[in-house]
Amino acid sequence: TIPHDPKLDLANYTASVWLKSIKSNESGDGWVGVFGRPGRHYAFWQGNGNTDSWFVHHRFKWGNVTNQGAPNTGGFSHGVWTHVALTNNASTAATYVNGTLRTSGGSGTLQYGPSDLHIGANPDNGSSLWYEGLMDDLRFYDVALSATEVANLYNGGYGDQFTIPATITSPATAEATVGQAFSYQITTTGS
């Protein structure tokens, strides 16, 4: 739990995280808290966390309604690293999974109350619906990143802190004559 700070009341946001969840035994109804604040402030629940295929439930508050959000998107397996990015520019809320836009919906001026940020627990109270598995590189931005920027965060599954390995495309063998000068050019793709 991170205590409330007004700097977390973001007019626009992107929340980005890498998950490698395991099937939950915590919640009988399948809801698992990934992160968020009471009042549904950039909240992320993992739905169907107790089944083999889970979905993203992205919620926020606007228009005095605390259960606004982009439509759910799912079909994701436990035990696999998955990148999720939630964006909201106070006009459109979007959910990206593995660098691809999966769903979007309307939004408006976001509303906040003084509440703590809960990570790995029920966003509404921080005391139940525990996330089970690994979580890495949780980030909050005070801007809704573009589709290109989200794709760059995903970076083909490598994340934005790593360079995609180069692939050698030149022939694996070359012929030469003993005693003669020889040159060979190596070509690559990627970094």
Question: Can you give a write-up of this model?
Answer:
The longest helix has 8 residues. The strands form 3 sheets. Strands 2, 3, 4, 5, 6 and 10 form a 6-stranded antiparallel sheet that branches. Strands 9-8-7-1-11 form a 5-stranded antiparallel sheet. The radius of gyration is 21 Å and the shape is elongated. The protein starts with 12 loop residues before the first strand and ends with a strand. It has about 190 residues and is mainly beta.
Q: Can you write the helix and strand succession as a string?
A: EEEEEEEEEEEHEE
N→C terminal distance = 39 Å
Largest sheet: 6 strands, antiparallel
Sum up the overall morphology in one term.
elongated
Which percent range fits the helix content?
under 10%
> Oligomer, anyone?
single chain
How many helices in DSSP terms?
1
Mean pLDDT: 88
How many extended strands?
A: 13
Overall SS class: mainly beta
| Rg from alpha-carbon coordinates | 21 Å
SS strand fraction: 35-45%
